[in-house]
Amino acid sequence: MLSILAGGDTTSASMRVVVYYLAESPDAYRKLFTELTSASLTLPAQWKDTRDLPYLDTVIGESMRLNPGIAMVFERVAPDGGYTLPDGRYIPAGTKVGINPSVTNRDYTVFGQDADIFRPDRWLRQESEAAEEYQERHRRMNDTCNFVFGGGRICMGRYLAMLEIKKLIAILYSTFDVSGVLYPLVQRPCTRTFDTQLHPVDHKHEWTYRNAWLAYQSDMPMTITRRAV
Ligand code: HEM
């Protein structure tokens, strides 16, 4: 029962955010499309074929960074004797503390001044960046984002969740063109045609986001068309 409660809405919320951001970001959509096309997955794709697709990882990681499936704190209680944080601040024994990944995942000192926008390429090495510099930046981003699955005591379904999300997104975008009816995405990567006539684009439209400890997004009208083989 716990697995169903803990594993259902969290995973579906995480899948929804990937679809939403891809519909808003033609550049990321095109890069993912290119990666999936070269991977020529045998559908339904298996885990062994989807686990090492770097851009797929990047898109999913960036989506979950901005919208973690659980968007409030899991409390911890400071132990007897209290606890001193690395920066020297002291937390008295018995104090309840917690970290909300929705907040820490937008830390400008870790993700940069554009932390509030979806930019999967932040996870890739920049041209001007030395290898060690990139490794360190990537490690900090990764460590911060790990709180999406809790810290210390962590999610038991973490690896299953990532397997489900990667397989679903890889299969969905290998089989269908998925575009947001009301979002700025107008270019369909496979046909190179534009969708504006079919669906007037309302650049102001945003989804409805409800945080009820679990995150619920709605009002995301999409067009899904099976891609010609
Ligand atoms: C993207 C999807 C998911 C997210 C974001 C997520 C997140 C979390 C978080 C933040 C916790 C709390 C950790 C803590 O105590 O601080 C947790 C616990 C848990 N999750 Fe997940 N989870 C996801 C998917 C799943 C799935 C698919 C399952 C099982 C099939 C699952 C099973 C559990 C269980 C059983 C716990 C409780 C662990 C315990 O009591 O020690 N989760 N999850």
Structural class: alpha+beta
Radius of gyration: 19 Å
How many strands appear in the DSSP assignment? Answer: 8
Poorly predicted ranges: 185-200
**Topology as H/E string?**
HHHHEEEEHHHHEEEE
State the helix count: 8
Query: What composes the largest sheet?
Result: 2 strands, antiparallel
CATH uppermost class:
Mainly Alpha
Outline type: globular
Secondary structure: helix percent: 40-55%
Explained architecture:
The protein is an alpha+beta fold. It is built from 8 helices and 8 strands, in the order H-H-H-H-E-E-E-E-H-H-H-H-E-E-E-E. It has one domain: Orthogonal Bundle (Cytochrome p450). It is 41% helix and 12% strand. Helix 2 (26-39) packs antiparallel against helix 4. The N and C termini lie far apart (41 Å). Mean pLDDT is 88; it is low at 185-200. The structure holds protoporphyrin IX containing FE. The site of protoporphyrin IX containing FE has 21 residues, from helix 1 and helix 8. InterPro entries: Cyt_P450, Cyt_P450_E_grp-IV, Cyt_P450_sf, Cytochrome_P450_monoxygenase. Keywords: Heme, Iron, Metal-binding, Oxidoreductase.
